[in-house]
Design goal:
CATH class: Alpha Beta
Helix content: 25-40%
Number of helices: 4
CATH topology: Rossmann fold
Number of domains: 1
Strand order of the largest sheet: 3-2-4-1-5-6-7
Distance between the termini: 7 Å
CATH architecture: 3-Layer(aba) Sandwich
Largest sheet: 7 strands, mixed
Number of strands: 7
């Protein structure tokens, strides 16, 4: 079992992909600090924060890469929480890192969150970690095709998935996309059997 006992305290996880980053800067995308956000990305982060304002979040974690940190800052300003930078939430570093190593560090992070005894957290990370967390929580049953954006990401920049723990399953919902768009097809909850 990859993520044992997820989670006696942890009931809700908001999985946030970082907002729109600066591209073609010459800055290494996978090494801290990496590039920051565009002006549109800063606005997307603010919108994500407005969405999360009344969601009962107790802890806000972010990858240390600048695009995730700046996204978390936009959210933190709206929800009034400090940011905890968490290296375990960094982007997948293929080929230097295997998928198994990515999953192991995500498991390590979630076990840490379980031990601090909070029920609702927000994680600002990157496409690959968000995708793998969704894959684990869905026991591999979530069809990503309707949700994929550029580079196979499971959500647009600053988009938010919500995972709610039920007795024997996680309910996964794509709950927020910044700016107007045709997102109606994502409003149906996805409930799957849990591995936990």
């Amino acid at each position: 079992m990859l993520f044992p006992m997820i989670m006696s305290y942890l009931k809700t996880i908001y999985l946030v992909r970082h907002a729109q980053p600066l591209l073609n800067t010459g800055i290494n995308y996978k090494v801290v600090p990496g590039p920051g956000l565009t002006e549109a990305g800063r606005e997307q982060a603010r919108e994500a924060g407005q969405f999360l304002r009344n969601c009962g979040i107790e802890r806000l974690y972010a990858s240390p890469l600048e695009r995730a940190r700046q996204t978390a800052q936009g959210i933190a300003t709206e929800i009034g929480l400090p940011i905890t930078l968490e290296p375990l939430l960094r982007e997948f570093d293929d080929p230097a890192e295997s998928k198994a190593q990515l999953l192991e560090r995500l498991a390590q992070f979630l076990q840490h969150v379980q031990h601090i005894g909070v029920s609702t957290v927000a994680l600002v990370s990157h496409g690959s970690p968000v995708r793998e967390l969704l894959n684990v929580l869905s026991a591999g049953s979530l069809d990503f095709k309707p949700y994929q954006t550029s580079y196979g990401n499971p959500v647009t920049p600053a988009g938010i998935w919500q995972a709610n723990r039920r007795i024997d399953a996680w309910s996964l919902n794509l709950v927020f996309q910044p700016k107007a768009g045709d997102w109606d097809r994502f409003k149906t909850p996805v409930v799957i059997q849990s591995l936990m």
